[in-house]
Specification:
The chain is of the alpha+beta class and about 270 residues long. Helix content is about 30%, strand content about 30%. The chain contains nine helices and eleven strands. The strands form three sheets. A five-stranded antiparallel β-sheet has the order 8-6-5-11-10. Strands 2-1-4-3 form a four-stranded mixed β-sheet. Helix 4 crosses helix 5 and helix 5 packs antiparallel against helix 6. The chain is elongated and about 85 Å long. The N terminus is likely disordered.
Length: about 270
């Protein structure tokens, strides 16, 4: 199992929790951060989205730190308290939309004046992590009756975890990807225990491994909607980008190397 950013920087969050939001450090509790469990913050601090840490060990979120205080106070008190003459309502609205805190968005709409544009019901956040590991298989290759040859073969196993605040997008992913089987394509299923999550596990069959040995190990290949096999992580990321961009998402962050998106381990999209 490969380390996700959160695993590589320590254990699961415990109270009190210190978070660095765009350079502003806040200290709060897990209960406050997960008050809206279907929000992105709820997903982050219930283990559905990997967490990064800064050099001092604070959990790091690359968003506007100044207005985050109002988001945090809303989660603490369930009321939106803004100073008189507050002039950053549009920024606060965008940040609340990014974190997908819908009750707060409703409060912000009530504070808006004029004909401000309502937040689209299509607004969503999509987060994908992918990891892989090698495994060496040993198997007997039948050459003739009672004549077997011991062979070895390396296979690469892939796991992709998809989280989206829009359940419809998760269901779309189940249509756009499928597992191969003797009886035809099999659609993956969303995780029933973790809301809005989809876990994809697949093992491409290398040329030197007989197909029956691949099936004997219980391995499955992952294919696109048109039936093309996904041979590696870049092929998966390329197809994921195609689906997400067609659905109106834009890339928000890439980890670890923003310049190498197809070989990243964590990819996040947003849709406003």
């Amino acid at each position: 199992m490969l380390n996700t950013p959160s695993e590589s920087n320590g254990n699961s969050p415990r109270d009190p929790v210190s978070i660095n939001v765009g350079g502003e450090v806040y200290t709060t509790t897990l209960d406050t951060l997960t008050r809206c469990r279907d929000s992105m913050l709820g997903a982050m601090f219930t283990g559905q989205i990997p967490l990064l840490r800064d050099r001092r060990g604070n959990y790091f979120i690359d968003r506007d730190g100044k207005v985050f205080r109002y988001i945090l106070n809303y989660l603490r008190s369930n009321t939106l308290d803004l100073p008189e003459g507050f002039k950053e309502l549009a920024l606060l609205k965008r940040e609340a939309d990014f974190f997908q805190i819908r009750p707060l968005l409703d409060e912000i709409r009530r504070h808006e004046t004029g004909s401000g544009t309502a937040v689209s019901c299509r607004a969503a956040m999509l987060n994908v992590t992918i990891e892989s590991a090698m495994r060496v298989l040993h198997f007997n290759l039948k050459r003739a009756p009672e004549n077997y040859e011991l062979r070895s073969c390396a296979v690469r196993m892939y796991v992709a975890n998809v989280f989206c605040t829009s359940r419809a997008v998760v269901e779309l992913m189940c249509v756009r990807f499928s597992y191969s089987s003797r009886d035809g394509p099999v659609a993956p299923q969303p995780d029933n225990t973790r809301q809005n999550c989809l876990r994809l596990e697949w093992v491409p069959c290398p040329d030197e491994l007989p197909r029956d040995q691949h099936e004997k190990q219980g391995f499955r290949e992952l294919k696109t909607e048109c039936g093309a096999g996904l041979r590696d992580a870049p092929a998966f990321m390329e197809e994921l980008l195609r689906v997400a961009l067609c659905e109106g998402f834009r890339v928000d962050s890439v980890f670890p190397d923003p310049s190498d998106i197809l070989n990243c381990s964590v990819l996040r999209f947003v849709r406003y």
